[in-house]
Amino acid sequence: MTEPAGAGGDLTDAAYRRIRSMLLYQELRPGERTSVGRLSAATGLGRAPVKAAIDRLAGEGLFQIRGRSGTSVTRLTATGVTQMFEMRSLYEDAAAPLIAERITDEQVADALALVPALTSAPSPEERTPEELTRRIEFIDNDVEFHRRIIAGANNPYLCDAYRSLNLHLLISHYLVLDTGAHETQRQNEHIDIAHALQERDAAALASTLRRHADVVRDAIVKTINRREVTR
Question: What domains can you pick out in the chain, each with its CATH number?
């Protein structure tokens, strides 16, 4: 397949979005092996943009590329997810007092601007293209909301470490959205986090972030365990 001149970036973005949606709807399942050729055929796009999209998704922790072993969807285990959320809570606990002390009014406003998008979660039952778009937007907004909060610590080393961890957690966000578990509770937690941020209350911020992380972790672990049983 030949790509039009100058269209490489657009085609890579198209491949990225399509493959990401395949991951979201479990058309590509955790642990499954795949290839550039297979995904090129599935997306109807050329090998070059598909390869670039796979590399981008691998950088986000969604694929593993291992030389002769080929490319596979990152496999999640209950133990691995628990350990990643332990690290997330350690970062957030450490960041909370720094955020309360250092975050600027502009940074608070930037984080709060995302709250409306996080208090209307997508439906787990609907699988229309429109609902798929809403799910992906919800994931992106959720990840960005937490990134902006941690950015309020104004510590670039902490921000880089947290960003790297969140990339590995990204695929787990897909799993929890697929369950539809605790939707109302998670929406309320975003509001509580926003309130603690506005008040610059370090203790409340740490507490609400940890409670939120625990709810999401438990939903993901239950999903993984259920799928292991039915495999």
Answer: 6-73 (1.10.10.10), 78-230 (1.20.120.530)
The whole-angstrom separation of Cα 175 and Cα 228 is: 13
Q: Which of 53, 74, 52, 76 has its CA nearest to residue 65?
A: 74
| C-alpha to C-alpha distance for 162 and 151, rounded to whole angstroms | 9
User: What confidence score (pLDDT) does residue 3 get?
Assistant: 47
Alpha helices, H only, 44-155: 47-59, 78-102, 105-112, 115-118, 129-151
Where does the pLDDT of residue 5 fall: very low under 50, low under 70, confident under 90, or very high at 90 and above?
very low
Residues near 25 by beta carbon (within 8 Å), at least 6 away in sequence: 127, 132
Q: CA-based diameter of the chain, in Å?
A: 57
pLDDT tens by residue, 157-193: 999 999 888 777 776 776 555 555 455 667 788 999 9
**Beta bridge mates, 34:** 71
Which of 85, 87, 79 is CA-nearest to residue 225?
Answer: 79
Contact between 65 and 33 under an 8 Å Cβ cutoff? The reply is no
- Exposure class string for 175-204: b at 16+ Cβ within 10 A, else e: bbbbeebbbeebeebbebbbebbeeeebeb
pTM: 0.75
* Helix or strand run (H / E) with residue 200: none
